Amino acid sequence: MLPNPTLDQLQVFLTVAETGSFSAASRVLNRAQSVISYTIANLEAQLEMPLFERSGARQPKLTDAGKAMLEDARRLLTDLQVMRARIKGLKEGLEAEVSVAISVMVPSPATVDVLREFREQFPSVALNLTVGELGMVMEAVLSGKATIGIGGAVLKQDDSMLMEKIGHSFMMPVASRNHPLAQIGRPLTLGDVREEVQLVVTDASGLTKGRDFNVLSYKTWRVSDIATKHALIRGGLGWGGLPASIIRDDLTSGALVHLDLEAYEQGEYPIYAMRRLANPPGPAAAWMIDAFRTRLSQCPNHADFTAALNEIRGPEMPLAAE
């Protein structure tokens, strides 16, 4: 018959191994030492192998089998603690899982900080994260794929949605340092960019079908995502707008150049927390919205962002906007 140790036996075994003695384990578990010894003996009998070396030693020492069992026992008991925390949370109304859709316009450092703290605050809550462009966030919330969305422009009015502005971001027109537009030593006109390839992200959600934002060139290459657009612009294959938070390091190093193009609208891009009215967020999702609100309130505006980069780059390498 296969051994079938109980969780209590594993807890006693782990406590003896971690405290270093049967007497110390009895004090930690508030049980008589004889009970501790009896429990370990029963466990060893089930497993048909000794877990501790007792002869000739003042303190019990793990055998090779005991060392191998220790990690298994620790993992099983940790899983039990996670299950207990999840059950406790469910009884208190805590979600088992939070599904969130986040726009690429949300600065990645803010996203990382919020999710790191979320993991610490809600260790028993699973996370389902979707990151995308343009209308994807709203579509994910409307379809029920996401409980909450943290994203940009309201692409259509929907009475079933609750929208709350919690921050801002902005796009900047850029090109690689070797691109022809980066070599023009003056502010750019529409005539300068019309015949140059502009890289444009296509909205997979379909909510912006037939609508273009800041598309100024006659020649366009359309790509499916921001990461591809970023790579192609860095590679000198065209110019286009990218979220400031993504290109900060490229602008600092000079790998990308900010294009001084008045025709390109560079106003603040609002970021909203969105959800369906019929699906109010639970404690964990509500906490996440508040955390993003706090982080995004600290993000710089366009002028502060440009000033900070110019300070880093120095007077010899200012951004083109300056």
Automatic annotation (TrEMBL):
GO terms for molecular function: DNA-binding transcription factor activity; transcription cis-regulatory region binding. InterPro entries: LysR_HTH_N (IPR000847), LysR_subst-bd (IPR005119), WH-like_DNA-bd_sf (IPR036388), WH_DNA-bd_sf (IPR036390). It comes from the Bacteria. Keywords: DNA-binding, Transcription, Transcription regulation. Pfam families: HTH_1, LysR_substrate. Gene3D superfamilies: 3.40.190.290, Winged helix-like DNA-binding domain superfamily/Winged helix DNA-binding domain (1.10.10.10). The keyword Cell membrane does not apply. The keyword Transcription applies. Residues 5-63 form the HTH lysR-type domain. Belongs to the LysR transcriptional regulatory family. Transcriptional regulator of the ttuABCDE tartrate utilization operon. This is HTH-type transcriptional regulator TtuA.
